[in-house]
Amino acid sequence: MALYFLDTEFIEYPNSIELISIGIVSDDGREYYAISSEYDYDHASMWVKSNVIKPIYKDIYRNVRSNKYKIEVFHKYEGKSIKTIASEILDFVGFPDYKQGKPEFWGYFSSYDWVVFCWIFGTMLNLPEGFPMYCNDLQQLLVHYNLAKLPDPVGKHNALIDAKWNKVLYEYIMDEIN
């Protein structure tokens, strides 16, 4: 099995979830990060705009004197289509050859992350062959083994930073239970 630690940032509203960004870290240390070009900024709550979208925007334009695009639309130019993200994830996990083994996905409070992840491919039934139809949840392991959570990562609500933290949390849990 090849282990992949994932996190997503998303816009949630009744009957839908829209991907903002996704981060995946493999157990061999490789990293994948993408921003979606397809989310609707107007659907985001003020909290998501302030704590998720604004930091991504600032990170992209941190070394630029003037921002090329307004925060409401930058992702349409700096982001990737869902179709491109799906293709890049397949490349990242080595589909269809799985030279490192079939993927096993882990997340932290990952229920919504898994729905967003599945929707990248269409539906859960459209997941690529060999992908599990579930994501393992690190929070459930913490509860099951009565372990304390590690401190939150610096830069929380950045999908790649949180995915890296998920890998660290997994390693901590495995050390504690073995």
Strand-helix topology:
Blueprint: E1 2-13, E2 16-26, E3 31-35, H1 46-60, H2 74-78, H3 82-93, E4 103-107, H4 111-120, E5 136-137, H5 138-144, H6 159-177
Parallel strand pairs: 1-4, 4-5
Antiparallel strand pairs: 1-2, 2-3
Describe the protein.
The protein is an alpha/beta fold. The chain has one domain (2-177): Ribonuclease H-like superfamily/Ribonuclease H (Nucleotidyltransferase, domain 5), CATH 3.30.420. 38% of the residues lie in helices and 20% in strands. It has 6 helices and 5 strands. Strands 3-2-1-4-5 form a 5-stranded mixed sheet. Strand 1 and strand 2 (16-26) form a beta hairpin. The longest helix is centred in the last third of the chain and has 19 residues, at 159-177. It starts with a strand and ends with a helix.
- Which strand order spans the largest sheet, edge to edge or round the barrel? 3-2-1-4-5
Strand content: 15-25%
CATH architecture: 2-Layer Sandwich
Major sheet: 5 strands, mixed
Radius of gyration: 16 Å
Count of helices? 6
CATH topology: Nucleotidyltransferase, domain 5
For the record, what is the CATH homologous superfamily label?
Answer: Ribonuclease H-like superfamily/Ribonuclease H
User: Structural class of the secondary structure composition?
Assistant: alpha/beta
Distance N terminus to C terminus? 18 Å
Total domain units: 1
How are helices and strands ordered from N to C? Answer: EEEHHHEHEHH
> Residue ranges: pLDDT <50 for 5 or more in a row?
none
